[in-house]
């Protein structure tokens, strides 16, 4: 069973004085500018400002989310009703830390983001998975136990089984075997591909920034430790002192958001607003009798079109003034008669609505007007409640 921190000194939270913090951020920003291989290692502390509690913060923590989950369990205590906590992690909006890391990765400054978090916020924020190593899994990702195919879900893919089976099966016709969630429980081995990626970057890194991690969980904590062992710069940003405190080049005691906002100001790089990113594929094929069109609507990973992404709660198909079909589960496949090709077609996409996304309408003058294959992005700004349809991966709404 996992526990909180047993050493009371390790639970104590520290805050740098403003002039010390400024000096440390000035130095870190300069190191980032000079770095040739900059990596970041994140823990639960980067998500507390979004309303997701961490695990090891003490009973007297200043965090609005309150004590860590394991700290509460060790004290047989309940979370205070005053705690600012989300009941549904899928409603969490990526923090300024998440979005700052996205921008640094997009600009090629951040070479790899190594994360202990399984809340899915790094992927949701827009980090390209090519530059992300999720050591402890992702609550939105499941994989085929046989062929290794990946499936992203806009819902919690876990059902709490110790064997990790989700009850769903691989969509590939040549496979069809059982899917497993990707969460790594205590005592289980970390995924070798993610671990190899993380250590590969640790061997190249000349600067590693740790954000919001107690660095008490191994083998994950050995990744930033490896950077220090190579006599490269290790900067730890955490309210509590960590086991690697004496190995760090600099220890910064401040909130992750405070650190990243200060760094981005010094780098003169604006932190972008968060946008909901979706990729949709529409395909049209003739049926075997050549009398109907078969239409398939799919979600896809915005960064990798080969990975299916379950995006839709339901899909409604309207022809003319009439609703002809309502689909409530995947696969979203329907047929339209070629004989009624004069009727307009409206396909209304209903999302899971974690961010109050409004439905999106795909309008076609007739069935033949539906492309044989069309792939596009839908970007949603939750602050203004509008979608933008585009074929460009970076054409975000204002």
Fold blueprint:
Layout: H1 8-11, H2 18-34, E1 38-42, H3 69-74, H4 96-106, E2 110-115, H5 121-125, E3 132-134, E4 141-144, E5 150-153, E6 165-169, E7 178-181, H6 192-204, E8 207-211, H7 222-229, E9 233-237, E10 250-252, H8 256-267, E11 276-286, E12 292-301, E13 304-310, E14 312-319, E15 322-327, E16 332-337, E17 345-351, E18 360-364, E19 373-381, E20 386-390
Parallel strand pairs: 1-2, 1-8, 2-3, 5-13, 8-9, 9-10
Antiparallel strand pairs: 4-5, 4-7, 6-7, 11-12, 11-19, 12-13, 12-16, 14-15, 14-17, 17-18, 19-20
Characterize the structure shown.
It is elongated and about 75 Å long. The two termini are 46 Å apart. It has helices spanning 8-11, 18-34, 69-74, 96-106, 121-125, 192-204, 222-229, 256-267, and strands at residues 38-42, 110-115, 132-134, 141-144, 150-153, 165-169, 178-181, 207-211, 233-237, 250-252, 276-286, 292-301, 304-310, 312-319, 322-327, 332-337, 345-351, 360-364, 373-381, 386-390. Helix content is 19%, strand content 30%. The model has no long low-confidence stretch (mean pLDDT 93). The protein folds into 2 domains: 8-139 and 183-267, Rossmann fold; 276-382, Immunoglobulin-like (Sandwich), CATH 2.60.40.1970. The chain is of the alpha/beta class. The strands form 3 sheets. Strands 4, 5, 6, 7, 11, 12, 13, 16, 19 and 20 form a 10-stranded mixed β-sheet that branches. The protein has a 6-stranded parallel β-sheet with strand order 3-2-1-8-9-10, with helices on both faces.
């Amino acid at each position: 069973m996992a526990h909180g921190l047993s050493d009371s000194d390790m639970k104590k939270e520290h805050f740098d004085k403003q002039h010390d913090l400024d000096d440390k951020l000035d130095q870190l920003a300069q190191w980032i500018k000079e770095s040739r291989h900059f990596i970041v290692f994140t823990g639960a502390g980067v998500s507390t400002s979004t309303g997701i509690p961490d695990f090891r913060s003490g009973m007297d923590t200043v965090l609005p989310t309150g004590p860590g989950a394991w700290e509460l369990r060790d004290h047989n205590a309940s979370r205070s009703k005053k705690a600012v906590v989300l009941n549904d992690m899928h409603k969490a909006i990526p923090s300024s830390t998440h979005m700052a890391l996205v921008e640094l990765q997009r600009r090629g400054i951040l070479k790899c983001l190594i994360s202990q978090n399984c809340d899915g916020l790094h992927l949701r924020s827009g980090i390209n998975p090519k530059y992300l190593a999720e050591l402890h899994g992702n609550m939105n990702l499941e994989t085929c136990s046989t062929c290794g195919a990946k499936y992203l879900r806009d819902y919690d893919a876990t059902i709490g089984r110790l064997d990790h089976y989700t009850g769903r099966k691989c969509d590939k016709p040549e496979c069809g075997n059982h899917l497993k969630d990707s969460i790594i429980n205590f005592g289980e081995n970390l995924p070798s591909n993610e671990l190899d990626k993380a250590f590969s970057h640790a061997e190249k890194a000349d600067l590693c920034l740790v954000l919001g991690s107690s660095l008490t969980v191994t083998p994950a904590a050995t990744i930033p430790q490896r950077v220090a062992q190579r006599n490269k710069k290790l900067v730890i940003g955490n309210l509590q002192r960590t086991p690697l405190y004496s190995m760090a080049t600099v220890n910064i005691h401040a909130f992750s958001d405070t650190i990243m906002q200060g760094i981005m100001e010094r780098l003169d790089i604006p932190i972008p607003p968060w946008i909901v990113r979706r990729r949709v594929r529409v395909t049209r094929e003739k049926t075997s009798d050549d009398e109907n069109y078969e239409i398939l609507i799919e979600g896809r990973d915005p960064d990798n079109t080969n990975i299916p992404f379950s995006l839709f709660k339901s899909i409604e198909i309207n022809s003319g003034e009439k609703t002809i079909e309502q689909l409530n589960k995947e696969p979203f496949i329907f047929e339209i008669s070629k004989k009624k090709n004069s009727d307009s077609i409206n396909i209304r996409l209903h999302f899971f609505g974690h961010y109050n996304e409004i439905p999106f309408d795909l309008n076609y003058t007739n069935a033949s007007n539906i492309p044989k294959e069309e792939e596009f992005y839908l970007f949603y700004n939750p602050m203004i409640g509008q979608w933008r349809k585009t074929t460009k991966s970076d054409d975000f709404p204002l």
